[in-house]
Amino acid sequence: MAGMTSTAHLTRFFAGLLVCLLAFAPSGARAQSLIRDAEIERSLKELARPLITAAGLSPSRVRIMVINDSSLNAFVIDSRHVFLHSGLIMRMKEPAQLQAVIAHELAHIANGHLTQRALNLGAARSAGMMGLLLSAAAAAAGAPDAAAGIAMGSQQSALRVFLKHTRAEEASADQSALRFMAAAGVDPNAMVEVLNIFRGQEALSSGRRDPWASSHPLTTDRLRAVRGYAASAKPREGNDAASAYWFARTQAKMQGFLRNPNSVLRRVKKSDTSEIALLTKAVAYHRMPNRKLAYANIDALIAKRPKDPYYRELKGQILLENGEAAAAAQAYAQAVNLAPDQPLILAGYGRALLAQNTAESNRKALQVLEKARSRDSQDPRMLRDLAVAYARAGNNGMASLATAERYALSGRMRDAGTHATRAAGLLPRGTSGWNRAQDVIRASELAAKAKRN
């Protein structure tokens, strides 16, 4: 019946809360936020694809997400998402090392470790307990503020063990990951290299350990077993050149936006006109800021790869953040033509159209942003822009709904409930928008109840 929210639907909603706790603004990212960047997500998808296939999973159903955190960590909370900390990605020296971490986390999915653990917690099948589990996962991932927004109370500290793997699970995941790597043509010795990075972590106090070392116990026997398998493994032939390329793009983009631009530029020769060097310099000069050199390098990059939508998207971002909305919209439009269904690129295009703030650009922005939302509803920054587009179109009910969903995704459940209630009062009863508002209201009520308990 209209107005009734099923447990399964609410559980999916809570899962969405953790999938996108906070949006990533490339020009000014915050700690413990998700990095939402189309190019980085595409690069990680390409690195993970052969491993996902080798694990017997579907590449279209597993997403690799990045948390903006300098510590070394990676984890899974369900069968569809692998989370990597930015610090871990930038610490890896070669693609096989990053792929080893991804393979290990995929093994936890393929081996059913989290599924079994959830089944053991019988109450986890209820929507309320799922919210608490996700809150615990958020806290373990280094986002205590977001976790507090989803649920608060003594249950949280008890449930934080949800992500901690047993030694038996770790040994099982290692063996499976090594098989996945060999089948995907990735050198299993990279797993040994990764474990050696964490080898000294267990001797440190809990406050000084990186999270991965705390949640993935490392033992001498475990390291010995991995070394033995890696020494005897004969991996299939893999596409090392492609892996190196996507890994280089990932690191160039992340280092450019997350590290000191002067430090980044010192590592690149001014005369270097290779693709990765141009990408690195375009981002770093943009952040200095040095508009002239940022434009020169992004234009050279596009000339080198004119059919790459992510470089045109980057040009749109640089132009927009320099106040050139019309030129930015043109660059984003070119990116959309090359990748018409990429939601993050669509969201950027909508943002540039809104910045022009004409009747026509606002009308088109609403169309573009609605399309972006239909492909990825878990992007708070897009939802913020969508709310503005609805408000400019005079649709205050949908503007309040988009705002409510944005607050829910950032863990501000009380504010989410307020705006969802307002939306429900403005939208026709029984419509899709009204039903979505009911979902947010129910989630807000569950969060408030958990806080009281």
TrEMBL record:
<keyword id="KW-0482">Metalloprotease</keyword>
<feature type="domain" description="Peptidase M48">
    <location>
        <begin position="41"/>
        <end position="228"/>
    </location>
</feature>
<keyword id="KW-0479">Metal-binding</keyword>
<keyword id="KW-0732">Signal</keyword>
<dbReference type="InterPro" id="IPR051156">
    <property type="entry name" value="Mito/Outer_Membr_Metalloprot"/>
</dbReference>
<keyword id="KW-0862">Zinc</keyword>
<dbReference type="InterPro" id="IPR001915">
    <property type="entry name" value="Peptidase_M48"/>
</dbReference>
<dbReference type="InterPro" id="IPR011990">
    <property type="entry name" value="TPR-like_helical_dom_sf"/>
</dbReference>
<dbReference type="GO" id="GO:0016020">
    <property type="term" value="C:membrane"/>
</dbReference>
<protein>
    <submittedName>
        <fullName>TPR repeat-containing protein YfgC</fullName>
    </submittedName>
</protein>
<dbReference type="GO" id="GO:0046872">
    <property type="term" value="F:metal ion binding"/>
</dbReference>
<feature type="signal peptide">
    <location>
        <begin position="1"/>
        <end position="31"/>
    </location>
</feature>
<keyword id="KW-0378">Hydrolase</keyword>
<dbReference type="GO" id="GO:0051603">
    <property type="term" value="P:proteolysis involved in protein catabolic process"/>
</dbReference>
<keyword id="KW-0645">Protease</keyword>
<dbReference type="GO" id="GO:0004222">
    <property type="term" value="F:metalloendopeptidase activity"/>
</dbReference>
<dbReference type="Pfam" id="PF01435">
    <property type="entry name" value="Peptidase_M48"/>
</dbReference>
